[in-house]
Structure formats: C-alpha cells, structure tokens
Amino acid sequence: MELLNETKLKQLLDRQEIVALVNDYCNAADRHDQEKMRSLYHPDALDDHGSFFSGLAMEFIDMLPQIQAPMAILHHNVTTVNIKLDGDRAEGEIYILAFHQINTDEGPMDLLIGGRYFDKYSKREGLWKFSHRAVVADWANLHPRSIVNLDNPIIKGSLIGKPGTADPSYEFFSLLKRGERSWGDVIE
C-alpha cells in the first residue's frame, strides 16, 4: 500500500510540474520573455507553430522578438488539460484561448483563437520540459478593427498589462521573476 501511495504522489507531483510548465509558457509568451521561454524547452525540442515556424524550438524562440513586435497584447488562457504520464515522458492535449491585439498599418486588430497544444514532455536531470509542441487552431474570431478599450472609465486607475518588462507585474512581485520558471526546483 505504501508503494502505491508513493507512486501516486510521484505522478501527482510530475503532473503538477507539467501543468506549471504549460502555465509558464503562457506567461513567457504574454510577457515576451524569451529567456524564460528558452528555459521551458529541451535544447533538441521541436516546435510547430504552423506558418510562423516549424523546426527546432530554440530557433523559434530566436524569432520571437520579430514575431511578437507588432503584438500590443498577448493573453493566453489554459482551459482543459489532459496529461498522460509514462515514466520520464508524458503527452498532453492542452486547450487554449489566446487573444492577440496586433498593430497593423490600418490600426490595431484583434484575433481570438481557440485551439489546442499537442505536447510531448520529457523529464531530464529531474526537470520536465517540452520535447515537442504543436499548435492546433480549432476556431478563430478576427476583428479587423480592435474592440479593446483600455481608456474606458470602468477601468480608470487600474494597472494596465503590457508586453515585456513594462508590465506592472515586474514591479509588484518579488518571488515571480522575469526569466524564471514558477515551479521546477529539483527536489530529490
């Protein structure tokens, strides 16, 4: 019975670390934090972002500043998480809602995507990271003219999120730091 409980506890901790990895990815993307993003993938990991990129994840991360430059707002939200563990490897189907406000020559436009990440993870040297991630779009809602209104009186005085280090979270938090994972201290 004790061995069964130890196995379940290990699986629970592994699953939680993978969920934290997925959430860290969203945070890194939204804050344009390439250092943190790089820490989430194994060096030989693959990433498939459709027409943006398909290949080695580190090469994709090198391209992120250019890809994200016109994006005034990125807001990724994880919904349904399905993870299957098998020792030091795992797979996940992660449902996502991702809002993008993109600056164009005609002014800002909004894109809301509902989709999934098809993920493969592996645990190396005691740490779970992505070994392969593929983005799947299930639907998209496009507004050629942005409907975002951050000047609305209802949010007057509120902190306003921004990409990069201008985001107010970097002044507010002392434990959640730029470039660092939220989970993953190796305890063995």
From TrEMBL:
Pfam families: SnoaL_4 (PF13577)
Annotated CDD domains: NTF2_like (cd00531)
InterPro entries documented for this protein: NTF2-like_dom_sf, SnoaL-like
All residue ranges annotated as the SnoaL-like domain in the record: 11-133
Classification via SUPFAM superfamilies: NTF2-like
Name of this chain's protein: SnoaL-like domain-containing protein
